Amino acid sequence: MARRGSNTLFFAGLLGLSLPVLFLIFFPLGRLVTAPTFEDLVHAIREADVQAALLRSLLTALGAALVSLVFGTPLAYLLSRRDFPGKKLVEGLIDLPIMIPHPVIGIAILGLATRDTVFGRILEWMGIQVMGTYAGIVAVLTFVGLPFFLNTAKAAFESVPERLEHVSMGLGAGSLSTFFRVTLPLSWRGIVLGMVMCTARAISEFGAVIVVAYHPMLAPVLIYERFTAYGLKYSQPVAVWLIVISVILFVAMRFLSRPVRQW
Amino acid sequence: MLKIEGLTVEVPGFVLRDVNLEIAKGEFFAIMGPTGSGKSLLVEAITGLLPSNMLDFEGSIWRNGKEITHLPPNRRNIGILYQDVALFPHMTVEQNISYGLRYCKGNGANAQKRFQFFVKRFDLGHILHRYPARISGGERQRVALARVLVLDPDVVLLDEPISGLDPLFQGDIRRLLRQLHSELGITFVMVSHDFEEVMYLAQKGAVIHQGQVVQQAQIDEIFNRPASTFVARFVGAKNVFKVRFENGLAYIGSTSVRIADACLVPDFDHIVIRPEKIVPVLDMPDIRTGLENMFWGKVLEMSYCNFSVHLKIQKDETIFRAVWPEIYVRKMGLHVGKKVGFAFNKADVSTFREAK
Question: What CATH code is carried by the domain that includes residue A232?
Answer without folding.
Answer: 1.10.3720.10
